[in-house]
Each structure stands twice: as C-alpha cells, then as structure tokens.
Write a structure and sequence with these properties.
Blueprint (H helix, E strand, L loop, with lengths): L6 H25 L9 E2 H8 L3 E11 L3 E4 L18 H13 L6 E6 L2 E6 L1 H9 L4 E10 L14 E6 L2 E8 L2 E4 L1
Parallel strand pairs: 1-3, 3-5, 4-6
Antiparallel strand pairs: 2-6, 4-5, 7-8, 8-9
Length: about 180
C-alpha cells in the first residue's frame, strides 16, 4: 500500500494494476500460442471427465492459495492467477480490496475439492484480491468430491498442459480451446 494515497485511490490503483497484469499475461500467452493455458480450469468439465458425482461433508479449513486452480461457473472472469480478466468484475473486486485494506474479516470462501485441487464456488473476488496481495492461505468451507476414474500416470508436461492431483495420482490435462481434455 502506498501511504500517500487515500483508500479509494489505493483500491482503484490496485484494480488497475491487477487488470494490467492480467492483460499482459493474456498477451504473452496469445503470442506463445498457449491461449487456453492462461484460463482457470472448469470444475464442471473436470467433474464430468472424472465422474466425480459423490460429495463428502463440508468442513472449514485453511487452504494453500496455490492449490486453488479453477472455478465453478466463473472460469472466464479470472485468469489462471485469479487476476480479473474482465473489467466488469471491477466494482465488487474494489469493494473486497477496500475491506482487505481496512483489515475487515471476510467470510470463508466456498470450495470444491478433487484430490489436492480446489475450485471456487463462492468467493472468486476474495481469492483474486488475496492472490493480488500475495496472501499464502485462505479460510475455506470445503466440499470434497471423489472421482470414480483412476489417476492417469504422470508424464512430462509441456507449457500447454496442466497437472492436477487427484485420488492419489496425477491427471494430465491438455487444453483444446476452452475445454481441458484428458490424455
């Protein structure tokens, strides 16, 4: 935080910097022809692929930010680093950032878990602001899903592939357009 700015100026500056970072990342991935690799994973696509329809009870715990890799329904609004990919998320993002700057307590985010990967159900803006400010962990209410498909063997990955841990193994996802495909 820059001390000579008032809170509203600081929040506006934070959002502007976050959007610039997101646009820069999008440009770099487009130049490298890895456009899909900058997108969040879609929980619904992964759940269908892994046949993970069975839920376990909800519990509240502390989750590492690096393990939050995707979204339930809003994967187009934020990039892979949870930076805002659209200007339309600005109003709420700034409101959450203002609360963060004031040190206000925010409610836990709601996540779905498959293996060691987490997907945001509610709290996308809170995750985005926390990532922007390099917060290492978040309090989360977690619902766990258990996949029926076995883990694929781990292989070396290129820059256009993602590793997602689940069920004691590693799933390699290759992006084709907007939908991750299992190899």
């Amino acid at each position: 935080m820059i001390p000579y700015m008032n809170l509203n100026e600081q929040v506006d500056a934070d959002f502007t910097r976050a959007r610039r970072r997101a646009l820069r990342r999008a440009l770099v991935t487009r130049i490298r022809k890895e456009h899909a690799s900058n997108r969040l994973l879609s929980f619904d696509d992964l759940r269908k692929e892994l046949v993970a329809n069975n839920r376990l009870h909800r519990e509240t715990r502390i989750v590492e930010m690096d393990q939050i890799v995707g979204s339930v329904g809003r994967w187009r609004d934020f990039d892979r680093s949870f930076l805002p990919a659209r200007a339309s998320v600005g109003h709420k993002w700034k409101r959450i950032d203002r609360a963060f700057q004031r040190g206000e307590d925010l409610p836990p985010v709601e996540l779905y878990e498959i293996g060691e990967a987490y997907f945001v159900v509610d709290g996308h803006h809170r995750v985005s602001v926390a990532r922007y400010h390099d917060v290492p962990t978040l309090e989360a209410s977690v619902v766990k899903f258990l996949p029926k498909r076995p883990a694929a063997p781990a292989r070396a990955t290129s820059k256009s592939e993602d590793r997602t841990r689940y069920a004691g193994g590693v799933l390699i996802l290759t992006h084709h357009g907007d939908t991750p495909q299992r190899r």
